[in-house]
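Priority: medium. Attachment 1 of 2:
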């Protein structure tokens, strides 16, 4: 209730008069012997009309009538006292005048008994339209997760801000996303957008009475596209317990890192390394021998936008050499033990390591051999010895154990 009283008092102050709305129409027959006022001018405003008229002798006040056409019924819109010959029509407490709409006015003098004098001639006034949209809207391209929208500020002094609208397609409905205060403000940053996506923007101006104009032409903005992945990925296979991954750099010039992912066939990929944007080679170490691995790479730019994955490259590590077969063992006349075997079928085997176990728990390396025989002269009589052999290839990889062979020395 207090707000209503305050609003009513505010209208009284602005108009400089007691604007008391009544339902009296201009069809009422004048009963007071008062001449008609002469409307000297009418000034159109934003959703308002200011009327000035000449004073009438012996008038105790004036009543203002408004109609929607020259020959329509005019309805009372307000009154003033005898000293006020101007009236600001804002439409009343429960509404406002329209934008760019024509209204028709007549004024009559009132006597002390509120009787109506002669009505003035009709005057037509058209309110100011809603403000025009700003010109030259533009939207940025190539920024990560955001678009910068700019426009030329309106030169209409009644404009106090702008409304910004966005859509994903030019022919669909635009939704307001921002209200920018200040006529001279002409920039807005639309954030948290999807990368590699096109957006359409339109702008409208609004004035101090809240009238919003039409939308501007559309500005098209595009967020930054994700970088391209490395176009070619290769591997070097048949290396001992390691693979070398080589790739061509992404065509984008702002790559910060590459993510390298690995998996075994049938398993999920997981990241194993992050390397710099100028790196095009990676050595994957401590792998299982004779095992196939798959690799894929994605590029990460300076804005932390990830590319799609590259093609998958496959590498297989060098397998372990095969163990020797057909082991045989003999005790020599001097008590030493000679072991012989058939060489490994692996072509690059360079030697063999002979192991032995005695007293059930003691295990030690008995020696090495480049051939297919070995004499163990570190033995004791009346003792059981178990021997097995491992092949060694050029890369230093050891085979699995050969089959074991056991002998007991004589007493």
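Attachment 2 of 2:
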């Amino acid at each position: 209730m207090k707000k209503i009283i305050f609003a009513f008092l505010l209208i009284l102050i602005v108009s400089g008069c007691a604007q008391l709305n009544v339902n009296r129409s201009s069809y009422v027959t004048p009963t007071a012997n008062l001449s008609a006022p002469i409307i000297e001018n009418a000034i159109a405003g934003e959703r308002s009309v200011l009327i000035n008229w000449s004073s009438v002798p012996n008038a105790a006040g004036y009543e203002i009538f408004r109609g929607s056409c020259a020959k329509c019924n005019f309805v009372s819109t307000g009154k003033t006292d005898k000293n006020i010959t101007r009236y600001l029509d804002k439409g009343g407490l429960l509404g406002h005048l329209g934008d760019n709409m024509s209204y028709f006015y007549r004024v009559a003098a009132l006597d002390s008994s509120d009787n109506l004098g002669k009505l003035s001639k009709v005057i037509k006034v058209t309110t100011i339209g809603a403000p025009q949209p700003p010109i030259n809207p533009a939207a940025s391209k190539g920024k990560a997760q955001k678009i910068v929208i700019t426009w030329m500020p309106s030169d209409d002094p009644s404009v106090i801000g702008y409304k910004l609208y966005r859509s994903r397609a030019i022919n669909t409905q635009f939704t307001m996303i921002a209200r920018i205060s200040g006529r001279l403000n002409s920039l807005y940053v639309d954030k948290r957008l999807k990368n590699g996506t096109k957006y359409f923007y339109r702008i409208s101006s609004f004035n101090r009475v809240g009238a919003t104009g039409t939308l501007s032409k559309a500005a098209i903005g595009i967020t930054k596209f994700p970088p391209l992945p490395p176009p070619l990925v290769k591997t070097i296979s048949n290396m001992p317990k390691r693979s070398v991954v080589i790739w061509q750099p992404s065509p984008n010039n702002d790559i910060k890192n590459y993510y390298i992912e690995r998996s075994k066939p049938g398993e999920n990929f997981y990241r194993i390394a992050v390397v710099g944007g100028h790196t095009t080679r990676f050595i994957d170490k401590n792998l299982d021998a004779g095992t196939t691995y798959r690799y894929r790479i994605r590029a990460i730019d300076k804005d932390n936008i990830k590319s799609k994955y590259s093609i998958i490259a496959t590498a297989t590590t060098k397998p372990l050499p095969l163990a020797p077969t057909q082991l045989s063992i003999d005790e020599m006349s001097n008590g030493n033990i000679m072991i012989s075997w058939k060489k490994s079928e692996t072509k690059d085997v360079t030697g063999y390591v002979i192991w032995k176990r005695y007293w059930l728990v003691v295990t030690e390396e008995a020696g090495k051999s480049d051939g297919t025989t070995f004499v163990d002269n570190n033995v004791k009589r009346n003792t059981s010895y178990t021997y097995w052999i491992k092949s060694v290839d050029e890369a230093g990889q050891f085979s699995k154990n050969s089959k074991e062979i056991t002998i007991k020395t004589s007493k």
